[in-house]
Amino acid sequence: MKIKDAVEFFNSFYKDFDKNKAADLLKFMNLDENSKITALSKGMSEKLYLTLTLSRKAKLYILDEPLGGVDPTTREKILDAILDNYSEDSSMIITTHLVNDIERLFDDVAFISNGEIVLSGNAEEFRNEKGISIDELYREVFKDA
Questions:
Q1: Which domain holds residue 43?
Q2: pLDDT tens, residue by residue, 31-47
Q3: At CA 56, angle to CA 78 and CA 81, rounded to 5?
Q4: Which positions are tagged coiled coil (predicted)?
Q5: What is the distance between the alpha carbons of residues 56 and 52, in angstroms, rounded to a whole number?
């Protein structure tokens, strides 16, 4: 399967899929639609998954470790794509251990340990009240874990 086949598959499967947006994101991500998916690197695969996901007009996006295992340049590209394609009438849940890299995206945060929420709230309020970044707060909460 090639990237263009995946785009066609998503287009036929999801009524809210926007092929034009997918084409724009593929270009932004420097992905060739004729590339075989099995030949993509980890970073290129992550960019493809994000492209397919963000090309939908969903009310809720769930991104599980979108920066996991990718180089810093690809991380920046992924973060820019998320920021540039975020819609005010949708919500996004992002799981990550790379808090520092993704902190600029947070409105609210929830720290989970052993299936339990150990701390949650508005990111800006945490920054103001505690005088530290969310990354520093994360490290503080999980320092003994």
A1: 3-105
A2: 999 999 999 998 899 89
A3: 15
A4: none
A5: 7
CB 18 within 8 A of CB 55: yes
Q: Is the pLDDT of residue 145 over 70?
A: no
- The reply to whether 122 falls in a domain is no
H-type helices in the chain, by residue range?
Answer: 3-13, 19-28, 42-54, 72-85, 99-102, 123-130, 134-141
What residues does 142 pair with on adjacent strands? none
Look up residue 125 and give its DSSP letter.
H
Q: Which CATH number does the domain housing residue 55 bear? A: 3.40.50.300
- Give domain status of residue 121, yes or no: no
CA distance 141 to 145: 8
Query: What's the CA gap between 13 and 79, in Å, rounded?
Result: 26
